[in-house]
Amino acid sequence: MTTKYIGILEWVKQQIQDEKLKTGDKLPSIRLLAEQFQCSKNTVAKALLELEKQHIIYAKPKSGYYVVDNHNTSVHHQDIAIDFLSAGPDQRIMPYEDFQHCINQAIDHYKEQLFTYSDQQGLFSLRKELAKYLQHLQVFAKPDRLVITSGSQQALHILSAMPFPNGKKNVLIEQPTYFGMIDALQANGITTFGIEVTMEGMDFKKLEKLFRTDDIKFFYIIPRCHNPLGHHYTNEEKKKIVALAEKYDVYIVEDDYLAELDTDLKADPLFAYEPNERVIYVKSFSKVFLPGLRIATVVLPEKMISSFVHNKFSADFNTSPLSQGALEIYLKNGMFQYHLEKVKKLYSNKMNLLLEACSLYLPTYVQFTKPKTGFYLTIFLPSGIDVDKLIYMLHENHIYVDNASRMFLSEYSQKAIRLSISQVNETKIQLGIRQLAAHIIDLYEKRNYNVLSFKSYL
Ligand SMILES: Cc1ncc(COP(=O)(O)O)c(C=O)c1O
């Protein structure tokens, strides 16, 4: 039976790879397959069950088996692509199976709560668990101050739009910064000021002036593993920023999305230096865990909670309780801590490889940031280079990078590309950077790349 069984598995996979069976196509019936492979219907049924488990086919009751997806094309694409663009976690360490157990357990545990409208602030039991978890990151707050949001993007969107206790109107952001924040501010029509950040930090005199004169409601800051630079502030700098915010009655929105990857165990969040509920701490679980869960938490000053929750309610009632329940179990049973160990090692190895390759191969007229950890590194290009053209040339060679222009307000605009190490395969980093360097040299020194037309891949 084993060989017939394996024969059926391989035959179906081959048919899909050769595109003889495409997404949505129906498989031959069990009877026909049994005849074709000269085996019992039972053997065919077992093979089909296995293919179902591998998510290659799915069953429609009383109809038959159908192909889920054409795996062939995506596998081929993954084989040749060098992906410095994608910013979700490395798919190879996404804890699908462990999490599947947690989802099943969550359904068993919380049957009634999971499939109805639930607490708008987030499941209390999860908030309790998160309050405990945040202590590892030096964030000490009672569960009552936590709100669960549908990703940190939702928290940033709500904070951009809602009134703050200081009655001020404008927002200050680092330049460059996370483009999703720029989008949220623009969508909400908020007047936005910028302050330049480099790997050496920022100008505190400028910061003080902006705080003093520009009616700043809050300062949005990414304190470590900065997106897109990879910059980290020192504890001293963080203390200074909090003190200035106190002095001028400015709130701080601290986006600590990659806190877990920080290799400096003494590094604190700004939140740790605020005695007066001045810092709003936003923690996503997308980058170190599963972006599709859409779960983040935000720690708010007591006086902002009801207004924030009201705004959240008007956006989506509540964050999916199924995701919340499963995350709670994942945190409780220690699987998350175990997962984090693997995550840290993988990304820090990839970042080291990227830094080494950039130092070895990029021409000297190109500046690049040198993050100690995190997902991102930014390359600043000389003014003679057409960034869209470079991205087009790379794209033609299956190398994908991000144009950093959308990470700047227009008045701060610079020629730069952002590289992400999160999904690139470590075996391809060096090759990718060698090719990137060759294209930069081609464009900048030889200036001989002729394309009749090219479009931007933003
Ligand atoms: C700095 C930063 N903050 C927040 C987010 C939003 O993450 P999510 O909404 O998935 O929690 C991202 C996503 O890329 C990000 O890079």
For the record, give the distance between the C-alpha atoms at the N and C termini, rounded to a whole number: 52 Å
Number of helices: 15
Q: How much helical structure, as a percent, in the residues?
A: 40-55%
Bound molecules: pyridoxal-5'-phosphate
GO molecular function: DNA binding; DNA-binding transcription factor activity; pyridoxal phosphate binding; transaminase activity
Family: In the C-terminal section; belongs to the class-I pyridoxal-phosphate-dependent aminotransferase family.
Organism: Solibacillus isronensis B3W22
Pfam families: Aminotran_1_2, GntR
Characteristic terms for this protein:
Aspartate Aminotransferase, domain 2; Arc Repressor Mutant, subunit A; alpha/beta; 458 residues; seven-stranded mixed β-sheet; single chain; binds pyridoxal-5'-phosphate; four-stranded antiparallel β-sheet; Aspartate Aminotransferase, domain 1; 43% helix
Written account of the structure:
Helices cover 43% and strands 14% of the residues. α7 runs parallel beside α8 (179-187). It has 3 domains: 2-72, Winged helix-like DNA-binding domain superfamily/Winged helix DNA-binding domain (Arc Repressor Mutant, subunit A, Orthogonal Bundle); 96-334, Type I PLP-dependent aspartate aminotransferase-like (Major domain) (Aspartate Aminotransferase, domain 2, 3-Layer(aba) Sandwich), CATH 3.40.640; 337-446, Aspartate Aminotransferase, domain 1, CATH 3.90.1150.10. The N and C termini lie far apart (52 Å). It is of the alpha/beta class and 458 residues long. The chain is globular and about 80 Å long. β11 and β12 (376-380) form a beta hairpin. The longest helix is centred in the last third of the chain and has 27 residues, at 335-361. 40% of the residues are buried. The strands form 4 sheets. The chain has a 7-stranded mixed beta sheet, sandwiched between helices. The chain has a 4-stranded antiparallel beta sheet with strand order 11-12-15-14, covered by helices on one side. It has a two-stranded antiparallel ribbon with strand order 1-2. It has helices spanning 2-17, 30-36, 41-53, 71-80, 96-114, 124-135, 152-161, 179-187, 204-213, 235-247, 305-316, 321-332, 335-361, 387-396, 429-446, and strands at 57-60, 64-67, 82-83, 146-149, 170-175, 192-196, 216-221, 251-255, 279-284, 296-299, 367-368, 376-380, 399-400, 402-403, 416-420. The model is unreliable at 448-458 (pLDDT under 50). The structure holds pyridoxal-5'-phosphate. Pyridoxal-5'-phosphate (PLP) binds at residues 87, 151-153, 178, 180, 222, 227, 255, 257, 284, 286, 291, 296. This is Putative HTH-type transcriptional regulator yjiR. In the C-terminal section; belongs to the class-I pyridoxal-phosphate-dependent aminotransferase family.
